[in-house]
Amino acid sequence: MVKIGNIELSDFPLLLAPMEDVSDPPFRAVCKENGADLMYTEFVSSEGLIRDAAKSVQKLDIFEYERPVGIQLFGSDVETMGSCAEIASRVNPDLIDINYGCPVKNVACRGAGAALLQDIPKMVKMTESVIKSTHLPVTVKTRLGWDDNTRNIQEVAERLQDIGIKALSIHGRTRVQMYKGAADWSLIAKVKENPRITIPIFGNGDIDTPEKALEYKNTYGVDGIMIGRATIGNPWIFNEIKHYLKTGEKLAPPTMEQRVDVCRRHLEFSIRWKGPVAGVFEMRRHYTNYFKGLEHFKPYRMRLVEAPTFDELDSILKEIANDYTEMVC
């Protein structure tokens, strides 16, 4: 069993990474149904939350069926981050996570996200501010360092554990790398092997198959894996990995009927969360991902993104299931 504060997870849990414009409540719902053990909200701007900006406030929406679920915060001001942790705690998540890993310019160039890897003392002060402002376990997601000359994750892990974080997720790239090249898990392993480190260490980066999950589990000794981009259009990856870790056998890939069913479930959750108009609109970016690799799919995709109601979308999805199942047969 892996514990994060008072949260008990299974042995070797699989975590859904926080992803902007992806890990909203509807997407988290289908990931939970398909085996995710711990999930996080999209990252919430501390400045936006303080200003009561609608987009930031809406990201605090969590539901009972998601638990355990964490709210992830990012920002550049120490006091503001503390205040936001207090606000986020009021909606009763299971934990608060701090984003020290986001590499995109509009976050890092404003002194937030991965930018804090260039100022460890400020990172420590900010983390202390968050911990003091909430009764919930506080965790951190970060990267190996800012660049190859400052791969300081071992120092970061020790200093953040010393002030009270309850778990650490590490993406195996530097900020300068963005998402290019292969993730380097060797430093993640060194953090885990450090006898001073007693909190759970989760590895993140490049896990996109059950085989790779098993290889990295055995090679690097992490307590669990956080999966991000590989879940997009593929929420069943969690159950696929769990089955492989348990049995050594691969599950058959999802059938067309299963793809359509999960897409429909996602759509239903989207409408339930945002209503019949916005819920339909928000789903449009997901159709290509759910049906990736299908030949001659473009006409169906165009119809899906143009359909204005659930009933019309449901009809098209049934048509897709029938047509592509017949093609296989």
From TrEMBL:
SUPFAM superfamilies: FMN-linked oxidoreductases (SSF51395). It is an enzyme of class 1 (oxidoreductase). Pfam families: Dus. Keywords: Flavoprotein, FMN, NADP, Nucleotide-binding, Oxidoreductase, RNA-binding, tRNA processing, tRNA-binding. Its EC number is 1.3.1.-. It comes from the Bacteria. GO terms for molecular function: flavin adenine dinucleotide binding; tRNA binding; tRNA dihydrouridine synthase activity. Residues 15-309 form the DUS-like FMN-binding domain. It catalyses: a 5,6-dihydrouridine in tRNA + NAD(+) = a uridine in tRNA + NADH + H(+); a 5,6-dihydrouridine in tRNA + NADP(+) = a uridine in tRNA + NADPH + H(+). Its cofactor is FMN. The active site is at 102 (proton donor). FMN binds at residues 72, 141, 171, 228-229. Coiled coil: none annotated. The keyword Oxidoreductase applies. InterPro entries: Aldolase_TIM, DUS-like_FMN-bd, DUS_fam, DusB-like, tRNA-dHydroUridine_Synthase_C, tRNA_hU_synthase_CS. NCBIfam families: nifR3_yhdG. Catalyzes the synthesis of 5,6-dihydrouridine (D), a modified base found in the D-loop of most tRNAs, via the reduction of the C5-C6 double bond in target uridines. PANTHER family: TRNA-DIHYDROURIDINE(47) SYNTHASE [NAD(P)(+)]-LIKE. Belongs to the dus family. This is tRNA-dihydrouridine synthase.
